Amino acid sequence: MDNIKLLILSDTHGHIENLITLFSWAKDLLPPNDKIMTSAFLGDGITDLNYAANTAGFYSDWKVVRGNNDFTSSLSSFTVFELNGHRFFICHGHRHGVNSGASRLIGAARENSANVALFGHTHVPFNKTVNGITLINPGSVGQARSRLGETFALCECRPGKPLKTKFWNISRWGKITQIKI
Predict the structure, then answer these.
(1) How many domains does the chain have?
(2) What is the pLDDT, as a whole number, of residue 31?
(3) Domain span holding position 28
(4) How large is the average pLDDT for residues 53-69?
(5) How far apart are CA 23 and CA 27, in angstroms?
(6) In terms of pTM, does the model score above 0.85?
(7) Residue 9 phi/psi, 5° resolution?
(8) 79-85: long-range contacts at Cβ-Cβ below 8 A with a sequence spacing of 24 or more?
């Protein structure tokens, strides 16, 4: 396979308008136009996904985990999947203590033979490789806790190459722009 993109989002907390904006933008990146093949939702707003995706006409292969505010969900708190030669461990992060460091998250990724750990919970975008594990937090689509505002990430997965992750902001006016974190 060639270059495949992974859409990463988290922490919508009922802000469905932002999700619809994001999905309306992202649907133009689906095949045949581009190659978003998979989308990862990292919890706290699971009930928002179906309505927003259907409204925007965005259909993707979803990898979804529940967060600490997804009370009705019977989904797992973590999952593992492979995409184009990269193995992803995804979780919300609250059970891995991400507010106080990444050591438990890195350990969980290693236990699951993953080279990438995706997490939410902090609402702050993050992208760093620590001890051989790439850690990515897309920030929050609904309740930002950083000066960067509401954010999400798009990760290019190329076989045999490092991941290339770009972060995006959703403005109050529905404009989506690439940002540096």
Answers:
(1) 1
(2) 65
(3) 4-179
(4) 93
(5) 6
(6) yes
(7) -145, 160
(8) 80/112, 80/113, 80/114, 81/38, 83/4, 83/6, 83/37, 83/38, 83/157, 84/1, 84/3, 84/4, 84/157, 84/158, 84/159, 85/157, 85/159, 85/160
SS3 label, residue 100: helix
Q: Is the pLDDT of residue 96 over 90?
A: no
pLDDT at 71: 83
Evaluate if residue 1 carries a pLDDT over 70.
Answer: no
Q: Distance between CA 69 and CA 40 in Å, rounded?
A: 17
C-alpha dihedral, 113 to 73 to 30 to 10, nearest 10°: -70
What is the per-residue pLDDT for 81? 97
Residue 164 tokens read as 């290339």
What is the C-alpha to C-alpha distance for residues 170 and 140, in angstroms, rounded to an integer?
10
Domain at 72, CATH number: 3.60.21.10
Nearest Cα residue to 139 out of 151, 155, 127: 151
User: Looking at the DSSP assignment, which residues form a beta bridge with residue 89?
Assistant: 80, 117
Is 86 strand, coil or helix? strand
**Omega before residue 138 within 30° of 0, cis:** no
Strand order in the sheet with 36-41: 61-64, 36-41, 4-9, 150-157, 164-170, 176-179
